[in-house]
Design goal:
Layout (H helix, E strand, L loop, with lengths): L3 H11 L3 H15 L3 H13 L3 H14 L4 H13 L3 H13 L4 H15 L9 E11 L2 H11 L9 E8 L4 H11 L2 E7 L3 E3 L4 H11 L3 E5 L1 E3 L14 E9 L2 E6 L8 E3 L1 E2 L3 E4 L16 H11 L3 E4 L13 E4 L8 H11 L19 E8 L5 H11 L4 E9 L6 H4 L4 E6 L5 H11 L5 E6 L9 H8 L5 E6 L10 E3 L6 E4 L1 H7 L9 H14 L3 E5 L3 E2 L6
């Protein structure tokens, strides 16, 4: 076959001499019109003149005659690409790659496929009967345990599940975007590698929520009804949902455990688990790290007009029955404040006026007392959490730790932190009295047992309760089964997370050094508060059970 005429046509097109190209096509039509090269040349001319529909029809006819021709398939894919029909473009690109051994040609097509799939407007065909669990993984042991819980879930009839682990991701958003584009599942569950799903009917419950309301785009297990100024749902006074959280040192119940306001529409959900029925790109252009990706994605769904929902996770009597356990091991807090600033700037219109970061009225600030003593192994985990979540109300953090430990002073050398070295065997009352001598004389005092995880969702709630009545001298969170009511007046002070009002401290005085263990010291102080006419409020919204006494 003489292909010189093809070269002439293509050269005329390259020189934008479209009239000459058309003359050559008409001249050779009768003799060569069914040849793949001739069909391709006609289509290229139409593509150059942006007559995409004509180019498509020419190539469809050509592929019908030459279904194994990689060039025709490629050009048909490219035509659909120009027409912004990503699904059809990918299909014909795929067929072209299957019909050629040319490595350079295949690489060129792959780059075009990446261009399509990275477009925010690209929508993949979806499998409406598939759930996809997506996690960024850097700890195989934790992820393996998480998979054990996934594999025991009951699956609705006609549905199936898949799990996609993204390894070596440079950010949470990039990892999630990659997996989202690879999966055609309608229902995607983005989850931490250390989340264990306890509710075996989780998929049924999720399906009920999504199918009953098409406007619900996202479901979380814990979230907030507003967008606090801090960008963290844990700083909201309207927390929704609950979960177990902790590590081998102790398990706690975090979130709302009330029969009222425990579920409903949210504006933020925590990233431990975020389920969606629609695909929206994760903002890796803004959040190219591991922080505020969840708050950002929540706001992206709100901007698109979707509802975000946190379901009931309650027993029939109103007590909490969390769907999940977050088996946390701590996380790097590098650049956390940087991305908080990015979040505030990008989503400023959604920020709540109610949580503007100011201390609760009546409270000057809080001195946090972290009772570590001999249990040094807990300290670094607590410090990472406090570094991340302690609000601006916390003016100082005083760590009481035995001086027999080889203390990592560099890691403890952070803003707001004061280290108090204690003697082995020194009583808790003696330690607390020395701590009070160091603490700011205007601050309220938060006493925190070192085994208690995740205090960040509690401090605002505790402070609000403490100042809800001028006669309240102390509030505390207690271990045990959570009650439907958030706060109840009681006749003793106990627990492992206690907030004392400064005015009450000034009136009642220092701790009684006849007692040595923390529980006895706190209990005695409660008796003295009551004797002086103060009230004590108790809640087990946050239930924690340290395994040892200080």
């Amino acid at each position: 076959m003489n292909i010189n005429y093809i070269e002439e046509i293509l050269k005329a097109i390259e020189n934008a001499d479209y009239e000459r190209a058309l003359e050559l096509i008409d001249e050779h039509r009768g003799e060569h019109e069914f040849e793949p090269e001739f069909i391709t040349a006609q289509a290229i001319l139409c593509l150059q003149t942006q007559e995409y529909e004509i180019a498509r029809d020419i190539l469809l006819d050509g592929v019908g005659k030459h279904p194994e021709n990689a060039d025709l398939l490629y050009n048909l894919g490219y035509t659909y690409h120009c027409m912004a029909d990503g699904k059809q473009a990918l299909e014909f690109y795929r067929q072209a790659m299957e019909r050629t051994d040319d490595a350079d040609f295949i690489d060129e097509i792959k780059m075009l496929c990446v261009d399509i799939e990275s477009s925010p407007d690209f929508i993949r065909s979806e499998n409406k009967n598939l759930f996809c669990f997506i996690a960024c993984v850097n700890n195989e042991e934790l992820y393996k345990e998480s998979l054990l819980y996934i594999n025991r879930l009951e699956i609705p009839q006609g549905f199936s599940i898949e799990c996609r682990a993204v390894r070596n991701a440079y950010s949470m958003t990039s990892g999630y975007n990659s997996a989202m584009k690879e999966s055609d599942a309608k229902y995607k569950i983005y989850m931490h590698q250390d989340i264990n799903i306890l509710n075996v009917r989780f998929l049924f419950d999720l399906l009920d929520i999504f199918t009953n309301d098409k406007n619900i785009g996202m479901v979380g297990i814990i979230g907030a009804a507003d967008v606090p100024f801090t960008g963290s749902c844990w700083d909201s006074s309207n927390i929704l949902g609950c979960m177990y959280t902790g590590d081998s040192h102790g398990i706690a119940l975090a979130g709302s455990t009330r029969s009222k306001n425990s579920n409903g529409d949210a504006m933020l959900v925590d990233g431990v688990l975020m389920a969606t029925q629609y695909d929206l790109p994760w903002r890796e252009d803004l959040f190219d790290s591991w922080h505020f990706y969840d708050a950002s994605q929540s706001c992206e769904f709100l901007r698109k007009g979707y509802r975000i929902y946190v379901p009931d996770q309650l027993e029939s009597d109103g007590t909490a029955k969390p769907w999940c356990l977050h088996n946390t091991k701590g996380a790097s807090m590098a650049y956390y404040e940087k991305y908080r600033s990015v979040f505030r700037k990008e989503y400023n219109e959604l920020l709540s006026d109610k949580n503007n970061g100011d201390p609760t009225p009546g409270s000057v600030g809080v001195s946090m007392i972290l009772m570590v003593r001999s249990q040094y192994e807990y300290l670094l985990t607590r410090m990472d959490e406090i570094d991340k979540y302690a609000p601006e109300d916390v003016k100082e953090i005083i760590i009481a730790v035995d001086d027999s430990h080889d203390i990592d002073r560099e890691r403890l050398g952070r803003d707001r932190i004061v280290t108090l070295l204690t003697e082995p065997g020194e009583g808790a009352s003696s330690v607390l009295n020395r701590v009070f001598a160091l603490a700011d004389k205007e601050n309220d005092i938060l006493i925190m047992h070192c085994q208690v995880p995740f205090i960040w969702n509690c401090l605002k709630i505790m402070t609000a309760a403490l100042y809800s009545d001028e006669d309240i001298g102390a509030v505390y969170f207690a271990a045990g089964e959570p009650s439907p009511e958030q706060w109840a007046e009681c006749t003793r002070l106990e627990g492992w997370l206690v907030l004392l009002k400064r005015s009450a401290l000034n009136n009642v005085g220092i701790f009684n050094e006849e007692f040595s263990t923390l529980s006895h010291v706190v209990s005695d102080y409660g008796t003295r508060l009551l004797k002086d006419g103060y009230k004590i409020l108790r809640s087990n919204v946050f239930a924690s059970v340290p395994s040892t006494e200080l």
